[in-house]
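Hey Z.,

So I finally got round to the coenzyme A thing we talked about over coffee. Here's the setup:
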Amino acid sequence: MTSTVKFHVEDRIAWVSFNRPDKRNAMSPALNRRMLEVLDELEFRPDVGVLVLSGEGDAWSAGMDLKEYFRENEAKGLGATRAAQREAYAWWKRLRWYQKPTIAMVNGWCFGGGYGPLYACDLAIAAEEAKFGLSEINWGILPGGGATKVVADLVPMRDAMYHALTGEMIGGAKAAEWRLVNEAVPLAGLKARVTELAKVLLTKNPVALKATKDAVRRVREMTYENAEDYLVRAQEAANSFDNDGRKEGIRQFIDEKSSEQTG
Ligand code: COA
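And the result:
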């Protein structure tokens, strides 16, 4: 049986992809189950510094599998529906707080439930040719599974409302303008751009990367005072965990002027 998830590691980048191209990489229960296993396997491997999530074929993911995830579980009853939700939400959550930095490489269709893993990835680069849509309204349902939360968090309110209420698709460039993704590039250059970005992340201290990505997500929900306090403690915790890396980075900057500064 073909695996629903493909992955390989090359030069410290874990390339993970949805692998149901015939079904536009719709997330079935089998795929959700397998993805959690793959994330588990890769998370603490010393040869992995960055994880990239992409899709085989011409889709990133067409969202939840309308047949295998929704219809078949609904026919079995509420218990089956809840069990399928737990499996999907489990790997998205795992990805939101993943040990390594993550990049969504959105190569094609990205719909509905696909917004869950899109948001879970720390960074997102899309092909200009990709198409994004909250098509739920066209099926007579609201964008659940976190999708509404994702657009409300990432996209300005008027655009989020328009997107959710009309079900109209947008392209990669508009998705970048709305900040659903960091940027959009032509599909032909997508992998090269993602590789370039991954390589930047690979030069950073991994303890600092994990502390920083968690902090960016956490402080969004905090008052300034709480964020200040959280960041002091997060920095101190990271220091005690990896004092040598921090001291070395500061030493290089002050004593050798050798650390690369960007921006
Ligand atoms: N769930 C289950 N199957 C899906 C699917 C989904 N979300 N999205 C696509 N598929 C299946 C189709 O049923 C079809 O299967 P078949 O070959 O056995 O008939 C196959 O994938 C190809 O789909 P098709 O519509 O022919 O491809 P396309 O390239 O013309 O269009 C999409 C691609 C993504 C625009 C279209 O498939 C689509 O609108 N999918 C639904 C997306 C959606 O609303 N997702 C929200 C779910 S939360």
